[in-house]
């Protein structure tokens, strides 16, 4: 990162959390590709949905219950927590 970027980061980190979140959102939005063709995006999402439904119907998808998801999150937090 450039010196200017580091300086901006240092200043941004001094902001309250809600302002940092707004800034992060604006920065991410600024790098999104707004030239995407909405019809192409819709077509790609439809293909992805069809692929996932086919996986489910074939029994090829690994499904988790909500409790299993929460347990995995808790386990990952425990394994990355210091001390």
Outline the fold blueprint.
Layout: H1 3-12, H2 17-31, H3 38-58, H4 66-80
Q: Please describe the biggest sheet, giving its number of strands, its sense, and whether it closes into a barrel.
A: none
Distance between the termini: 31 Å
Spatial extent as radius of gyration: 20 Å
Q: What structural class do helix, strand and pairing data support? A: mainly alpha
Tally of separate domains: 2
The total count of strands amounts to 0
List the secondary-structure elements in sequence, H or E. HHHH
Mean pLDDT over the residues: 90
Helix content: over 70%
The 3D shape can be described as flat
The number of distinct helices, counting runs of at least 4 residues, comes to 4
Q: Which consecutive residue ranges, at least 5 long each, have pLDDT under 50? A: none
Percentage of residues in strands: under 5%
Features:
83 residues; mainly alpha; 2 domains; 4 helices; 0% strand
What does this structure look like?
With 83 residues, this protein is mainly α. It is built from 4 helices and no strands. It folds into 2 domains: 1-32; 38-80, no CATH class. Helix content is 73%, strand content 0%. The model has no long low-confidence stretch (mean pLDDT 90).
Short description:
With 83 residues, the protein is mostly helical. The chain contains 4 helices and no strands.
């Amino acid at each position: 990162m450039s010196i200017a970027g580091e300086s901006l980061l240092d200043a941004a980190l001094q902001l309250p959390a809600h302002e940092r979140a707004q800034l992060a959102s604006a920065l991410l939005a600024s790098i999104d590709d707004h030239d995407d063709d909405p019809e192409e995006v819709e077509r790609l999402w439809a293909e992805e949905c069809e692929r996932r439904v086919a996986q489910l119907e074939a029994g090829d998808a690994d499904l988790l219950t909500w409790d299993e998801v929460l347990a995995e999150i808790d386990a990952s937090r425990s394994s990355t927590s210091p001390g």
